[in-house]
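Before a colleague's protein record goes any further, I have to sign it off. My question to you is simply how this chain folds and whether the tokens agree. I do not need a full report, just your reasoning and any doubts. This is what I was given:
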Amino acid sequence: MLNPSTLSLGSQVLNQPGAAMTVTVKNNQPGALSISGIKVSGTASADFAVSSDCPLSSSALASGESCKISVTFMPSASGLRTATLEVTDSLEDSPATVTLTGTGLASTLPALNLADSGGSVIPEKAPAWVATSQNEIQEPDAASLRQVTGRVRPLPATGSAGNGFVPLSVTPPQSPALGDGLTRILITPANPTIPAGTTQQFTATGYYADGSTENVTASVTWTSSAPGVATISNTGLAASISGGSAMITASLAAAVPLVSTGETSGPPIASAPDAPVSASTSLGVTGTVSLSANSIIFTAQNVGTASAARGVTLTNRTGSTLSFGSVQLAGANSGDFGVNGNTCTSPLAAMSSC
């Protein structure tokens, strides 16, 4: 059972992650519940990221127990965004679903005043942003490069004093976090260990010389040193594949070229590049040998007749070859069940299923 059945993550500025919200999975069945997969589907599925403490494949959720799925929303487009959270388990009505909704909002840009070379504001001559994707604007007569965050970097300006309107564009669009004073990046959680076949959401926080901090998860470049062990998306969501360890790195480049589109003279204005800032943490992945279901429940069947076949998948995520014996049935009523269509043979290669 999933609660709630519909989850609204509210309104969020484009390309900025919102606060995480929780979906609870509770096993109301008399027996153990095997969960084989958790994913988000739908046209806007990339806008929603999930992580969980639910046992996947290698162990089961006992009767009466609960686990939690954390959902975050980072819209890539304006307006209503919808997707479906799917939890695949051993019940016949699998997968269980939750409808996810959220609204993407365009960034609200600050109002800026244009000043002359003496520092006096020129009345009714405010600079204008030429596109909502911009993060910086050149104020020619103030001789400074001002970012959305309000941080200012001195920069020689072109253009005549008193010129009241010079629209500029930023190429390519960069995060507001790429400002002066960024001293370090902190990745959380630090050095986690997760089972193979699960996910882990990382968060990157930027620390600035003025004492301020900023969530830069969506701005940094995420990389994994061992993609065969774990991959990581551009939103900081790591997906574990096989046993081992991978170094997860978040880096922030700071070169932001500017191109004038207004009434300036001389060459295009360009910002000086800053040294990249990066941080790393280790992600440990525990290799597993798992079955896609720990139990199979058949519906009532007439005596002497055969039911439809139900399949179970064996997956080797240990990173090495797996050797095993024959597949057999055991138990008081083992004679009522039969195994056919078995494709599992020993040894089973690493990262293989049968």
Summary: The two ends are 29 Å apart (CA to CA). The first strand starts at residue 2 and ends at 3. The CA atoms of residues 115 and 142 lie 5 Å apart.
